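Morning. Coffee machine broken again, so started the prediction first thing and wrote up yesterday's gels while waiting. Chain of 130 residues, entered below exactly as on the submission form.
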Amino acid sequence: MVMAKDEKELLSKMASLLKSGATMLDMMCPTCKVPLFKLKSGEVVCPKCGQRFVIVSSDEEESRVKADMVLSSLEQAAVQKINSLIMPLSTSETFEELTEIGRALITLLQVIQLSRQIRGAEKGVAEKGK
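Came back before lunch.
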């Protein structure tokens, strides 16, 4: 039986993961239909497409993980917006411009702070449930 180049590369990657201490799971990648691997770091990855997965044991845990991911994305977006306001802040020439940028910065910082508070509260609830 002759193996295609792609199949050889995949098998080589899977073998490399096993050699590095990863564990092959009994779950398949929904996209690639190949076994998922749990790395030593705890991350779960597909060796073919590289997609990362979070394995949950209940609907409640899935909801918490999804909420955490959404809030994390929100924080990243807010940080990017803050970064984009640095130049206008340093070049603004009027009090009105400074005030407008300042309000935007305060709002973005509040978004980050609230997101982190919510994520912290969610983690506390999750840990109490264990």
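Residues 59-129 form one domain. Going to sketch it on the whiteboard this afternoon.
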